[in-house]
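tool_call: predict_structure(chain=1)
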Amino acid sequence: MPNTEFRLETDIANRALQHCGVPQLDSVLGFTEDSKNAKETSFAYPKLRQAELQRNVWRFAIRKVILRAIDSNTLLTAPSLWVADTTYFVGSLVSDERGVLYESRIPSNLGNAPQISPVAWEPYFGPVSVAQWVSTTSYFAGELVYVAIGPGTYRVYRSLQSNNADNPATTSTWDATIIYDKNDVATYLGTPYMSRVDVNLNQTPSTSPADWSAVTTYAIGSSVAGSDGVVYTSLANGNLNHDPTSSPTFWTNTGVLSAWNAVFVGGATSLKWRQVGGPEFPMGVALSELNLVYPVGTGPSTEFTTRNVFHLPSGYLRRAPQDPRAGAVSYLGAPSGLPYDDWELENDLMVTPDVGPIMLRFVADMVDVTRMHAMFCEGLGARLALEVCETLTQSSAKVATIAKEYQTFMSEARLVNAIEIGAEEPPEDDWVTCRG
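tool_result:
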């Protein structure tokens, strides 16, 4: 459930200042306020946020990702820094100034800063290594693949569902019985169309009017699709350069949405995939060479005879219990329900004899305050107060009081399952082992 009371980083900072008994930050200036309170809290906040996320397995921060072993054809995502005057596509990856990655959720994404636009941007905790698409492989939802289309050029696709063996570059034929979502692509009579709307059922693509053009002269009764996606009908002959969305004397708003569009950015794509990078997406998902120095005992390909290398996902902080329910119902003396894994973490890599694919459950580096559990925000506020109180108040008594409040918040978070402990397996009984 989204957090509706803690919305900004400064909300948590002000909670810390309340614990210290000092003035809160200005509601407009926030961390940019010219004060000692702002200087101390802004410096400590990002460091303590990450430390507290790593300290416990917070349920709101748990994510899953599918990892594939790196081979000689694997490439690396190369997100660029977000720029305010750049228009991004659905699936574009960008980095903020702190190096946090975000994925665009909407088309024509312009001027929406990732840190403060949860509707336009989603924190990206997916794979950062991208495998070449292989026809004999079945892919999971969220996986990235690329298809080489010429010297130095490629298209990048993201799987929209699991058990996906479709060719991402082959467009599905339009089917009247399929419900299409916005941005889905289907081919009708050899022409690809992109759905403008969600819940698009049994709307023949060829019946949707073309987009209005400022250089086209329209006759009375002509139909066009406005920039708002609504169908408009011309009220006059010689109708030139009158935007239908703002010219009621020249156009009638029919109130009907245009279901399909034959002119769009992107190429032919299976319904099970979404194109998120390539020549059509100059600000989509870009790729670069991995240039990896392989750990000792591993090789640059997926093999059964040597250890393999997997790149950890974006925003990885620590492992979460891979099967939190395992062992919860094991009877005394029963063998462990958790499978053994031989995963060694080295920098941003995982080294293991496993061939994969590996489903990794992990704690992600959450920065969006609205996605944080309220009890985490309370605990982080107390921790922040604990660190800055002595500097701001010179009161050791307040520091001791805040320390008790911090412990209370964290204990209560465990009681309400805001923190996942994970099942602890009982040891295998020696008598059972001997009999085996």
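agent: The radius of gyration is 27 Å. Proceeding to next step.
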